[in-house]
Amino acid sequence: MAMEKDNSRATSLLPPLPERMRPESLADYVGQKHLLGEGCILRNMIESACLSSFILWGPPGVGKTTLAHIIAKTLDREFYTLSAVSSGVKDVREVIDRARSKSLFSASSSPILFIDEIHRFNKAQQDALLGAVEDGTIILIGATTENPSFEVITPLLSRCQVFVLKSLDVDDLRILLNRALTEDTVLKHRRVEVKETDALFRQSGGDARKLLNILEIVIDFFGGKPAVIDNKVVTECLQENVAIYDKNGEMHYDIISAFIKSIRGSDPNAAVYYLARMLSGGEDPLFIARRLCISAAEDVGLANPNALLLANACFDIVNRIGMPEARIPLAEATIYLASSPKSNSAYLSINKAMDLAAKDPLTTVPLHLRNAPTKLMEDLGYSDGYKYAHDYPGNFVDQEFLPKGLEGTVFYEPQQNRHEDVLKAYLEQNWPKYYPPKR
Question: How confident is the model over 299-325, as a mean pLDDT?
Answer without folding.
Answer: 94
